[in-house]
Design goal:
73% of the residues lie in helices and 0% in strands. By secondary structure, the protein is mainly α. The longest helix is centred in the last third of the chain and has 20 residues. Keywords: Signal.
């Protein structure tokens, strides 16, 4: 692509940028014509040899030097000699004889060549010149981003890669994982925690790898002001996206679920930990077994008291017990009744932390395959203690 673009520009332009008085003398024109024919025939070595003949002509005019440099650049590109091609195109550009589309084509070629030749500062210079001259092609911005990153200018890297990502999103395309990782890494290294978290959100949206989710959930749950009572909800999200990483997280979630009055969830978490080989081994194996036994007993006790618990929840003035009861029933496979009780509880009114209840209802709806209804619940959450952050992340789960 680089060779074709450069050669096309050369053949199309010829002497168009020159003043009327600029002409090639026969002793220069003849070898350059031969070089052009050789390039067309794919004989780059012959083309370079003919260029050398033109360069050997004594007393070349500035115009003859300019045309020779352009021919040399095209021949070098075809030959795969990137350093020589860069040198030749730089000479052509700095001559001041290129303008308009020809100048933009040369600057585009130069920015790519400089990246290829591991000259990031030169690549930045030529790419910025390209945009200053009115260029708009995304490929040049990609080269600029690569060069800025190689130069360790991470703030500028983030600034320049973001338009590429947003353009893809606006056009309905999936941004490349490489560009999203560049954005995330650059923001992290420059200390922009909020920007880094937003980049992670983009990564889990377009490339939902477990490691991205694990980092995202961890960072959100460690933010200043994130309520301790919502740690169980953060771990629930981590479990849903496969980001529970070790025995301690399984234990934490199971214990928090027991404390929250959802023993069925605790039992399921422990069983999952055993099935994955995370629990039941090592120095803490006995502790794991005690937790398993405790969860099993709590489930048995809870099931035996379901009728009484439901009656008590309905008599309560607050809707929170109904929401909790519905959440418990979900873990026992009673999805329809559980969802109905949660909805009834919310309609009745939850006085303390209503957004917590709304978050859990949204999660339940999502698990039941009712995404539009779940999204309505998530989008209605506005508290700043972590519930809204978790709701936003649940909207990204697919």
């Amino acid at each position: 692509m680089l060779r074709a673009a450069a050669l096309a520009a050369l053949l199309a332009c010829g002497a168009a940028q020159a003043q009327d008085k600029d002409v090639l003398r026969p002793e220069v024109a003849k070898p350059l014509q031969a070089a052009q024919d050789a390039i067309k025939a794919g004989k780059s070595a012959d083309a370079l040899a003919r260029v050398k003949e033109a360069e050997a002509v004594p007393g070349r005019t500035p115009y003859e030097v300019f045309i020779t440099d352009r021919m040399k650049g095209s021949a070098a590109l075809q030959a795969g000699d990137s350093p020589l091609a860069q040198q030749a195109f730089e000479a052509a550009v700095t001559s001041g004889r290129l303008a308009g589309a020809d100048l933009l084509a040369a600057l585009k070629t130069l920015s790519a060549l400089a990246v290829r030749n591991q000259q990031p500062q030169a690549a930045v210079t030529w790419a910025r010149r390209y945009f200053a001259e009115g260029g708009t092609e995304p490929a040049v911005r990609v080269a600029l981003v690569q060069a800025l990153y190689a130069s360790n200018d991470l703030a500028a890297t983030a600034r320049e890669v973001l338009p590429l990502i947003t353009a893809d999103e606006a056009a309905g395309r999936t941004p490349s994982e490489e560009q999203l990782k560049l954005l995330a890494f650059s923001l992290m290294k420059t200390g922009d925690e909020a920007g880094y978290t937003q980049a992670l959100e983009r990564l889990v949206t377009h490339h939902p790898r477990t490691e991205y989710w694990a980092d995202l959930v961890s960072r959100v749950s460690r933010r200043p002001g994130f309520a301790d009572r919502l740690q169980v909800d953060a771990l629930r999200l981590a479990r849903r996206v496969g980001a529970l990483e070790d025995a301690s997280e399984y234990l934490d979630l199971a214990q928090l679920a027991l404390q929250a009055g959802v023993p069925g969830e605790a039992q399921a978490v422990v069983e999952e930990g055993y099935a994955k080989g995370v629990l039941g081994k090592g120095a803490q194996a006995e502790r794991h077994q005690r937790l398993k036994t405790g969860a099993d007993k709590a489930v048995a006790d809870d099931k035996s008291a379901l009728a009484a618990s439901e009656d008590s929840a309905r008599k309560a003035r607050d809707g929170a017990p109904l929401v909790a009861m519905g959440q418990a029933l979900l873990t026992y496979g009673q999805a329809d009744k559980g969802l109905a009780l949660m909805a009834e509880g919310l309609a009745k009114g939850v006085q303390k932390h209503p957004d917590d209840a709304r978050l859990r209802y949204g999660v339940a709806l999502l698990a039941a395959g009712q995404r539009p209804a779940a999204e309505t619940q998530f989008k209605a959450i506005t508290t700043t203690d972590g519930a809204a952050d978790l709701a936003r992340l649940w909207l990204l789960v697919r």
